[in-house]
Write the structure tokens for this entry.
Amino acid sequence: SPTGMRSFPKAVVSTQSTGGQRLADILQYAILGVFGIAGFIWGYLCESFVETFYVVSVGSLVTTLVALPPWPCFRKNPLPFLTPGGNTKSKKPVQSFGKTGKGSSKKKN
């Protein structure tokens, strides 16, 4: 139903905390490293590059399943986000870099 499809994105939690991102990054490199080394050793013993490719491919799939979804262990300390137009109390001027269109320091002759 169309109503169910509209509520689907709100039902899926897609945020991670900073610590969760760090953990996912460490797990990604660790899993890929272990499968890469194991694939190299297995392919060397079998004398087949195809076997190495298979082991590394399985490692990529495992890494995707472990590090990509926002598992609860990655969402322990979420950061609060500002709402659109939220904090309007601080009226600090925004510094602009580049030409503003109101003139420039160099004059044309």
About this structure: The CA atoms of residues 2 and 8 lie 10 Å apart. The two ends are 68 Å apart (CA to CA).
